[in-house]
Amino acid sequence: MIAVLCAAIFVMSVCAAVFFDTSLLFSGTAALVSAALFTVEVFLFKGSRLKSVLVFLAAAAGLCVCIYAPNRATDYGLLDHIEMYSEYVDAAADEKKEKSTKALDALIEKYGEDDNSRYIKICQLAASGDIGSAEEVVSHFSNKASPFYLSAQEIIMTQKYESAETLGEHLIDLYIQSSDDNPDWGYPAKHAGGLLFDRGKYDKAAYYLTRAMLYGTEDDPEVYYYLGAALCEQDNYEKGLPLLNKAYELGADDALLGGIAYYVERSGMGEKTDEKSE
C-alpha cells in the first residue's frame, strides 16, 4: 500500500510539473520525498509497525499536497499583476489619462495598495494639481525610509512650494531624514549637503557630502565640488583644493568651474602658479 502511495506521489509530482506549470522545485522535492519514503519502508526498520504507520501518514499527506498544488494559482497572481501593471504603464506612456487611471484603479482594487501603487497615484494626483489628495496618499506609505517615499515627497513639495527658498527649507529636512534612515544611500546625502552649503552650514554640509562621496556618488563632480568648497569655506584649503581638482577631473560644468577658480584664487594658489610660470 505504501509503495503504491509513493509511486502515486512520484507520478503526480511529474504531472504537476509537465501539465500544470507547477514549480520544478516543488515537483522535484515531492519526487525525492516519495523515493525517500519508499526506501524507508522497504529497506529500513523492517518489522516496525510504528514506522509503517508514520510512513503511511507521510505518504498520504504528500499525495494530498501533490493533488492540491496544481489546482492553485502557482504564480500567486504574479503574472496577472505584471500584466495589469504593464497595461497601466502602456496607457501612461501613451498619455491616455483616463485609461491609465482605470488600469491603476483596477490593479489596486484587485491586489490592494502598496507603496509602488501609492507612488504612481501620487504622480497622477500631483500632475492634476490635487496636492491635498497626494499628501493624503503619501501619509499611508508603509515604508517612509524608501526611495519611493522620498521621490513622492519631492514631487509633492515641488508642486506645493513656489518659492525656491521655502522649497529648499522643506527639502533639507526631507533629505536629512532620508539620509539618516539610509546611511549607505548617496542621493539624499548629496542633496542635503548641497542645500546646507547654500545656507552657509558648511560643517554640517561637509558631513553629508562626505557620506555621499562614500556611497553611490563617487564619480559625481558636484559632490567633490561642494565638499571641497565647504572645506575651503572653513579655511581648510589643504583638504578642499584636492577635492575641487577631482571635481575638475570628473568633468565639472561651467558653473562649477567658475567656483573652482574662485576658491583657487581665494586660497592664493592661483598667484603662486602665476609666479612659477614667470
- Kindly state the percentage of residues in helix: over 70%
CATH topology of one domain: Serine Threonine Protein Phosphatase 5, Tetratricopeptide repeat
Order of helices and strands: HHHHHHHHHHHHHHH
Number of helical regions: 15
N→C terminal distance: 102 Å
What structural category do the secondary elements indicate?
Answer: mainly alpha
Shape label = elongated
**How can the largest sheet be summarized?**
none
CATH class of one domain: Mainly Alpha
Tell me the strand percentage band: under 5%
Instruction: Kindly report the average pLDDT value.
Output: 77
CATH arch. level architecture of one domain: Alpha Horseshoe
Tally of strands? 0
**pLDDT < 50 stretches:** 17-26, 70-76, 272-278
CATH homologous superfamily of one domain, by name?
Tetratricopeptide repeat domain
C-alpha Rg (nearest Å): 31 Å
How does this model look, in words?
The protein is mostly helical and 278 residues long. 31% of the residues are buried. It is elongated, with a radius of gyration of 31 Å. Among the domains are: 2-71, no CATH class; 170-278, Alpha Horseshoe (Serine Threonine Protein Phosphatase 5, Tetratricopeptide repeat), CATH 1.25.40.10. The chain has 15 helices and no strands.
